[in-house]
Sequence to fold (989 residues):
Amino acid sequence: MAKTFAIRKRGKSFLIFILAAFWLAFILFPYLWMFITSIKPSVELYTSPIRYLPSSPTFEGYRLLFDATEFPRYLLNSFIVTFSTIILSGSVAVCAAYAFSRFEFRGKNRLFPVFLISQMFPAILLVLSLFFIMKEIGVLNTPIALIIAHSTFALPFTIWLLTGFFNAIPRELDEAAAIDGANRWQIFRMILLPLSVPGLVASLTYVFIFSWNEFIYALTFTSDATARTLPVGLHSFMGEYIIRWDLLTAGGVLTALPVVFFFAIFQRYIVQGLTAGAVKG
Amino acid sequence: MKRTKVFLSLFLMLFLVALPSLGQADTTLKYWLWLDDPTDTTVSELVDKFNSLHPEIRVVIENVPLKDYHDQLAIALSAGVGPDAARFKDWWLGEFREADLLEPLSSYIGEWPAKDDVIPNLWNMGKIPGEEEIYMMPHQFITFYLYYRKDWFTEAGLNSPATFEEFLTAAKTFTDPGNNRYGFGLRGGDGGQDQWLAFMVAGGARVVDEEGNIVINSPKAVDVNQWYIDLYSKYKVVPPSAPTDAYAQVTGAFQAGITAMMAHHVGSSVLMVEKLGDKVGVCPIPAADPKNPATMITMSGNVVFSPSQAKEEAFKFISWLTEPEQMDKWSRSRNGQLPVLNSVARMDHYINNEFFRVSMEGADYAIGWPPLPGVGYVSSHVWQVNMQRALLGEITSQEMLDEIARALKER
Amino acid sequence: MTMVQSQKERYIPLFLLAPAILLMLLIVAYPVVQSIRLSFFDISLLMPARAKFVGFRNYVEMLHSETFYRALLNSIVWIIGCVSTQFVVGMLGALLLKCKFKGNGIIRGLTLIPWATSSVLVALMWTWMLDGNYGVINDLLKRVGIIDSYIPWLAQPNTALGGVMIANIWQGAPFFAVMLLAAMQNVSEELYEAAYIDGANSWKQFWYITIPSIMPTIIITTMLRLIWTANYMDLILVMTGGGPGYSSTTLPLLSYLTAYKRLRVGEASAIAVFQTVFLMVVLSFYLRLLQGQSKEE
Fold:
């Protein structure tokens, strides 16, 4: 009896191993294929039937990329926009979350859902009018237009997440500190902020992913190559080098690297942040 | 706290780096263009030369794919961040003129020394009928012709096609789907409207008649269009991917030996010879009626935009590009087309080149898109969508042409 | 609530909320109102100053346009097809990741990468994989015997939308997988043990314990995905541009094309307004459906 159980258990874990391998392949295959394509010599790209492995890997595509295109500039622009968005959005959201969590005021229960409803408006409803607004302010073709737009769109989710995390910190701590003579600002700085670091990291990581990958507003608000962020740069690159898949995939790999790298470090927090929000409801 | 300070100062440095750099030049000139072959460095070499000749002007070029060019230009100009000058197509002349975005150039041209060297008829392609004002400087133009695989035709004992009938016969001869071979590389994807028009006019259809009435949906035009559609749906002498094939796909297929014939222009001749050598031949677009041949002509010129703050400098640059030495260099490059100057067109290099020769011969009877405001929209969207739907059988030839006529009328 | 707010403290929430409210007003509220206003005008992107008031004409023309109904149908197919398949695939992934095996944590972390990838990059990878001549998906399908010859997925009107949907499903399933997994991990083991003792098999356990326990998460994540998918057009824009013809054009993409290709701002705004109202109607149906269900229980 024990023997059959052991065999069944081993069979089951073998099955799970296979399934897990399939799942991993499902998730990662597109990236792998893109990388393989990018190191194939261009004569081997368009063969029928398809070659799966390159006979002599080459990095020629990458060299061409750095020589002939603006990729470093796109990377810089993305950095500027995304990190500024994190700072702006983070500060505004933290203040708002503090207000929702620790204060009572008129309309509090009605204001909170309003932030969430704004998520429903499609980008195309807003983008045209925002285009004209940004034009009037004079910030088109500069990072500022995107920083303002991205920060605002990231607000509802970030405020929601942070409010949840602040709420999880017991009020008794606030009171204890107040008895010791701390004012609101000190309570905020020395108790709430430090204890909500996981939540902060989770929400700022979300903002990073959102802003780094944002496409429609970035496309609309920039027309010069010098102002483009990475997604827009990659898109115009695809338009220029239409069937040069050796170059396109090399560009794709370069675009994927920062996110994969960032992700490897912060994935634990992202998952935590996302799921904390969902489970609490 | 210390970490925050480090981070903030790093951030500040990044910001300062991002601020537009201040050059020594007094005026920065933004010039937009599209390039069929972006790996060719001729244009940047020309720009560098101009910048060194004119230290007080700094020309900065922006390469935008032709597919998105019209829309990006409209958006940028609408946003007030458009270029000062740009490469421009006659398709968009009417539309942009109506929006008062094009700077009249006649007064600048009057003082330009090389003005008499320009082939006289070509000035008209930069004008609006009824007006004497010139809005677009001619720069490079093309007329459509037909590439064909000389080696295949010789092997099959066929001459290059001169009539629609011979064209169809040849196409059928070379079509062999089992071996991935087709007679003609029909371009249903973006940018295909010009070669479509070439066949339409060669078949006897017109966009407008002598009085300027829109006749693109006349019974004659419907018939010719049906013939074109039939190449895909009835005779199946074109690759199955035709409805979405654009420049890269059609050119790739011809070079790879998948198609026997391809309609295009001298702009791709350098590339073709490079890849196919003597295997590629060139002939005029076949005509339905050999006594009335026709082909399509289109101009890529240069314009200066009215909102520009550097109009004089802009004209200096675009007129410099049109002068004989630069004109010759551009025309010989992989992005080169027909030169607009007599002195250059008479040079041996062009006269002895069969691709240039056939193109210039076609110029005698070539017809272009009329400068109606609606052509901008037709060329950027209406033709492509409706051509695809007609090829796929979703709409009829009449319905497609009615849509185009409507777009031409309403805008 | 034992911390008493003093008089002067009453203004603190105002200061704290002011930046957020200001940004929302300027960047969300004002443009929404403006866009609604624009939908009543005939206005060209190229000549915005020459706008003309035309009342409801843009809406009337929209409702008479065949292209509009085509896009509406595509939107419905897109939303239902994508969200439901993402849910199923995500659920399968969550069930798999729930099992204990070595490397479980790493795989769970890697699972989210598609969700964190730029839509342009997703489009690039999948356009290459679905290529009609050299696409690896075509090659694999042919080797396995599912198809005879390569399919130009994105170039045919009856498969273009499907091709983009496949890419979207790949991109969105991880979100479901991670969320559902977290919810499942919160369900206490005792419930399962009790059911096992009572003789319930795995399927019964799943249907009668797992699903009801994680229902709140299912509802929220599905709603988020519905909203997000309905408004998502990046992928379609880059992979097919809405073509061939209008076969892969959804409502938001139609609005975008109308504004940036036809340069007709008023008509584009009308479509965008319709899209917003349409989404709100869909969501209210969804919520009513759920309320009805919970009342039955």
